[in-house]
Write a structure and sequence with these properties.
Helix content is 29%, strand content 26%. With 445 residues, it is of the alpha/beta class. The strands form 5 sheets. Strands 9-8-7-4-3-1-23-24 form an 8-stranded mixed beta sheet. The radius of gyration is 22 Å and the shape is globular.
């Protein structure tokens, strides 16, 4: 960062926006907002790439660029509990040493990964639709639907500007678990006017409307009901709604339910603690599955992204200590492959196919729904909020450019942000600097 720019952001109210992750790639979301030399961060996530072996490798944002340029982060505001939004906290929180604000569900997920009480004492629970003050920033968490409970957009008022940071979102009228989108609040925000949207671009190239989680529940029921043998469903452990749906499907198909993988058990425990799973069926311990007929078993497990240490990878290799898949069993992939994990997932599927395991994916029936908005939803949100400007983020270049093109067709001034760029948001977003800040690859997962 140039000295003139460093002086500008320290002596002027801005506001300023600087993504250090999540703008130009999927994952590693870490966005800085500054005004009058006071800086906050939105999210602190991890990303993935593949090693030459095909094993997913964790990436986290590099905060040195902020520190070298005199930026002190005073608070981290979490939009929701997915790993690409909270996964870097265990690695970076000790360096940042600032309070973290999150919803109860995201807070429990963070706390389950943090063992240092000094850090846990800095974890604060927010209430949605209430305004919180951070220096010159006034911030409100606005509930939205996504593929995890308690996702939020952030309404940020600072230096006379109104900014809406979308986080991850979709418009799902039947989300299975959790609140629906706070439509009336979004409409009220739009009545007063939004200067800049910092917007999720993941599905901006896709026309139409995203699929409801309730539709996925029905699709999985129709797929599982006629299957003759053991059924194993792999999905993201954080997708509590999907786990809940599979619990219901186990009851409807007269199958006993079991969960494999410590992260699955961790999420299940948090869901029960926060009263999201009050009517969830009792699960069978994995070591007891051998006493049950195969057609009475429904297993949910981790490993949909080809993670080498996850339960599904060990089952594919035939070395899981509690369970062995047999020819004719069914494995359903109830997830989307994260960009960067394609090689690992393809290798996993090949290992399962060699063992004569029957693979079922979204190409066979409805097994998954994205948590991100397609174009009809983006149009609807922007009609409610009536923004003047868009800075596209949360996507690779292709996603962000598609988002900008779509927004401009709605007469919204739009441009695509990249990691390391510094924007002045005091008027139309103005690029004032750009620095090279590659993500950091962790030594060990």
């Amino acid at each position: 960062m140039q000295k003139t720019t460093r002086t500008l952001i320290r002596q002027n109210q801005g506001p300023f926006f600087m993504p250090l992750g999540g703008a130009g790639e999927i994952g590693a979301n870490f966005y800085l907002y500054g005004s009058n030399d006071y800086w906050i961060a939105v999210d602190c996530g991890q990303g993935f790439i593949n090693n030459p072996s095909g094993d997913p490798q964790v990436l986290i944002p590099d905060i040195r660029a902020a520190k070298v340029n005199g930026i002190v982060i005073r608070a981290i505001l979490i939009t929701h509990g997915h790993e690409d939004h909270i996964g870097a906290l265990p690695h970076l929180w000790k360096k940042l040493r600032c309070p973290v604000y999150a919803s109860p569900f995201a807070g429990e997920l963070i706390a389950s990964r943090i063992k240092d009480n000094r850090l846990l004492n800095q974890l604060h629970t927010i209430n949605p639709l209430k305004t919180y003050h951070f220096g010159p920033f006034h911030v409100e968490w606005v509930p939205v639907t996504h593929s995890i409970p308690e996702a939020n957009g952030l309404l940020i008022n600072v230096a006379g500007r109104t900014i809406y940071h979308t986080g991850d979102w979709k418009l799902d009228p039947t989300p299975v678990l959790g609140r629906t989108t706070a439509i009336k609040r979004l409409q009220a925000i739009g009545e007063k006017g939004v200067d800049v949207i910092i917007g999720d671009s993941t599905n901006a190239p896709i026309s139409g409307h995203s699929i409801s989680e309730a539709s996925v529940q029905q699709g999985l029921l129709e797929m599982i009901r006629p299957l003759p043998n053991r059924v194993l469903v792999t999905c993201f452990a954080s997708n509590l709604a999907r786990i809940y749906s599979l619990g219901k499907i186990a009851q409807q198909t007269n199958r006993h339910l079991s969960l494999l993988g410590p992260s699955m058990q961790r999420i299940l425990g948090i869901g029960k603690k926060l009263n999201y799973l009050n009517d969830f069926p009792e699960q069978i311990q994995p070591q007891e599955l051998g006493y049950l007929p195969r057609h009475e078993q429904l297993i949910i497990c981790t490993g949909s992204q080809g993670e080498p240490r996850a339960a599904l990878a060990r089952l594919a290799e035939g070395n899981h200590r509690l369970l062995e898949l047999e020819a004719g069993d069914h494995v359903i992939f109830s997830s989307k492959t994260i960009p960067g994990n394609e090689v690992a997932v393809a290798r996993l599927m090949e290992q399962l196919a060699i063992r004569n395991i029957q693979l079922l994916t979204d190409s066979d029936s409805l097994t998954h729904a994205s948590g991100h908005p397609a174009q009809d939803e983006i149009r609807q949100l922007y009609e409610w909020l009536r923004p003047k400007h868009l800075l596209a983020m949360h996507g690779e270049d292709y996603h962000q450019e598609a988002h900008c093109n779509f927004a401009m067709r709605l007469d919204i001034n739009a441009r695509s942000a990249k990691d390391g760029e510094v924007y002045d948001l005091s008027a139309a977003p103005k690029l004032i600097d750009a620095i090279e800040i590659p993500l950091i690859q962790l030594e060990n997962r």
